[in-house]
Amino acid sequence: MFAEILKEKEKSLTTAWNKEKSLNDDIKKKKAEIEKAKFELEQAENDYDLEKAAILKHGEIPKLEKELDSLNNVEKNK
């Protein structure tokens, strides 16, 4: 009986750890996407590709930052 309780506890902790790990991986990926978009913005501005720069600056980057904030809020609310 004691072994069963320990197995259930282990399963519960493993599940919680996997969820947290997955969330942290998602946050890392989102940060990498933001950095990539910022680099692309810099390149577009250097190339005077104003349309692409505007799309990144006013559309893509803010969207990614909102998604990152959302992921961070999920992490804080655990």
The ordered H/E elements are HH
What characterizes the major β-sheet? none
In terms of quaternary structure, what is this?
A: single chain
- Estimate the strand proportion: under 5%
What global shape is seen? rod-shaped
Specify Rg, calculated over alpha carbons: 20 Å
Secondary-structure content class: mainly alpha
End-to-end span in angstroms? Answer: 30 Å
Approximately how much helix is present in the residues?
Answer: over 70%
Keywords:
92% helix, mainly alpha, 78 residues, 2 helices, single chain
Architecture overview:
By secondary structure, the chain is an all-alpha fold. It is 92% helix and 0% strand. The protein contains two helices and no strands. The chain has helices spanning 2-46, 50-76. Helix 1 (2-46) packs antiparallel against helix 2 (50-76). The protein is rod-shaped, with a radius of gyration of 20 Å. It starts with a helix and ends with a helix. The model has no long low-confidence stretch (mean pLDDT 94).
